[in-house]
């Protein structure tokens, strides 16, 4: 898979750890379902703590990416869902710590609620 990061000064710069766009040639495309901060063994939220839920959701996403034969480098698009957009900076910092550069394209949405009372969800598009 060849991944090309697209950037133009004619559009606003990224306000977080993501690229404006990513072009991909070759490979297999995998669309991951959203992951929330559930512990795999129990199916319960890892904690009530936002940061803990974000880290667990990314760990769950990583496990699915790896099960598909990929790595975090193969992610070309992420979508983040937050029930409280005031925690956007915290989610950005955790994502920047976990996802390797160059960053994938990304959208972030504020939502009223998520399954099981989660505060954060992440979904991904991966090309291997």
From TrEMBL:
Which superkingdom does the taxonomy of this entry point to? Bacteria
Annotated Gene Ontology cellular component terms: cytosol
The UniProt entry, under SUPFAM superfamilies, shows:
YjgF-like (SSF55298)
- Cite the InterPro entries for this sequence: RidA (IPR006056), RutC-like_sf (IPR035959), YjgF/YER057c/UK114 (IPR006175)
- Read off the CDD domains from this record: YjgF_YER057c_UK114_family (cd00448)
Per the UniProt record, one Pfam family is Ribonuc_L-PSP
Q: Which GO terms describe its molecular function?
A: deaminase activity
Give the NCBIfam families listed for this entry.
Rid family detoxifying hydrolase
Name of this protein: RidA family protein
Query: From which organism does this entry originate?
Result: Allopusillimonas soli
Q: What is the lineage of its organism?
A: Bacteria, Pseudomonadati, Pseudomonadota, Betaproteobacteria, Burkholderiales
